[in-house]
């Protein structure tokens, strides 16, 4: 994925990963310790439901 991201920087794509992966421009991971009812918690719920 990193090679694809470098070769085509204007291409938009994302992969979903769990908290064991580092955040990368193409890899979306959950936000650790998100506060209840915060936008971060809503993001986590959406991300984990995919």
Furnish the topology, listing elements before pairings.
Blueprint: H1 2-7, E1 15-16, E2 27-28, H2 39-49
Parallel strand pairs: 1-2
Overall pLDDT: 87
What global shape is seen?
A: elongated
- Helix-strand topology string: HEEH
Beta-strand segment tally: 2
Radius of gyration: 13 Å
Query: N- to C-terminal separation?
Result: 20 Å
Output the structural class: mainly alpha
Q: Spans of 5+ residues with little confidence (pLDDT < 50)?
A: none
Percent strand equals 5-15%
Number of helices: 2
Q: Helix content range of the residues, please?
A: 25-40%
The largest sheet, given as strand count, sense and whether it forms a barrel, is: 2 strands, parallel
User: How many domains, as an integer?
Assistant: 1
Strand order of the largest sheet: 1-2
Descriptive key words:
50 residues; elongated; mainly alpha; 34% helix; single chain
Notes on the structure:
The chain is mainly α. The protein has one domain. It is 34% helix and 8% strand. The chain contains 2 helices and 2 strands; from the N terminus they run αββα. The protein has a two-stranded parallel sheet with strand order 1-2. The longest helix has 11 residues, at 39-49. It is elongated. It starts with a helix and ends with a helix. 0% of the residues are buried. The mean pLDDT is 87. This is DDE Tnp4 domain-containing protein.
Question: Summarize this, please?
Answer:
The chain has 50 residues and is mainly alpha-helical.
């Amino acid at each position: 994925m990193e090679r694809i991201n470098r070769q085509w920087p204007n291409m938009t794509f994302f992969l979903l990963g769990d908290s064991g992966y580092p955040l990368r421009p193409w890899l979306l991971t959950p936000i650790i310790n998100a506060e209840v009812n915060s936008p971060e918690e809503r993001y986590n719920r959406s991300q984990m439901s995919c």
